[in-house]
Design brief:
With 220 residues, this protein is mainly alpha-helical. Helices cover 63% and strands 2% of the residues. It has helices at 3-17, 21-48, 53-60, 64-70, 88-103, 111-120, 125-132, 137-145, 157-170, 178-185, 192-199, 206-213; strands spanning 85-86, 175-176. The protein has a two-stranded parallel sheet.
């Protein structure tokens, strides 16, 4: 279950068990915000899998125009491109990485933040494989807050995204997915994302990073 899914369950249970109306309403407010995030993650997943906006709008019970307005940052552009573009899930992971950087007080987005953004982004295979290897958002956030991963310096977002694009091009992929973002974040074994994973007990060899990012394999 995704991070948002777990939080939704906890908030719903807390609201039902709240001893006062004020506490219940505060939890309902937080629950509503988390449901919005959960919806956004699943819209990104659907778009990444090729679902049209019309189908998403129908599932949500809204017009196509309304769905397009709400999720315009995630909807893939129609015009053709000569190089791979980021999938909606990858875009959402980068959006989350910016939020994680702000929460940590960083002045720029680095590979450690992109790893946190990937872990936060939903139920895709790459995230589930990370979780199965014991690499959870909660654990990675704690390690980042403790200073176990470099969050400033050379492994900034632009470098990571350039490496992710190169990883997609090497595979002749037509899109840059979450798995390519992970490869980009882990290109430098001395970078912040690699340091975070090492702090969480992951093997540091670059070959292991690549094998993991390219499939549901992990070694600790």
């Amino acid at each position: 279950m995704s991070v948002s899914g777990q939080r939704i369950c906890r908030l719903a249970e807390g609201a039902c068990a709240a001893p006062t109306p004020d506490q219940a309403l505060a939890l309902v407010k937080a629950l509503r915000a988390e449901i919005d995030e959960f919806e956004r993650q699943h819209v990104a997943r659907a778009l990444t899998l090729g679902e049209p906006v019309t189908a998403i709008a129908r599932a949500l019970g809204v017009s196509r125009q309304s769905a397009h307005r709400r999720f315009r940052e995630l909807v893939p552009p129609r015009q053709p491109s000569t190089r791979p573009r980021a999938t909606p899930e990858a875009k959402l992971a980068v959006e989350y990485a910016r939020r994680e950087a702000r929460a940590l007080g960083a002045s720029s987005v680095a590979s450690a933040h992109l790893l946190l953004g990937i872990l936060r982004s939903g139920d895709c295979e790459t995230v589930m494989a990370l979780n199965a290897g014991g690499i959870t958002l909660e654990a990675a956030r704690a390690a980042a807050a403790a200073g176990d991963g470099r969050t400033e310096g050379e492994d900034d977002a632009r470098t990571v995204l350039a490496e992710a694009l190169r990883a997609a091009q090497r595979e002749c992929a037509d899109r840059v997915g979450i798995e390519h973002l992970l490869l980009g974040a882990l290109t430098d074994p001395a970078g912040g994302a690699a340091q975070l994973l090492c702090a969480l007990g992951a093997s540091p060899e670059i070959a292991d990073w690549r094998a993991f990012a390219e499939g549901p394999r992990w070694r600790v």
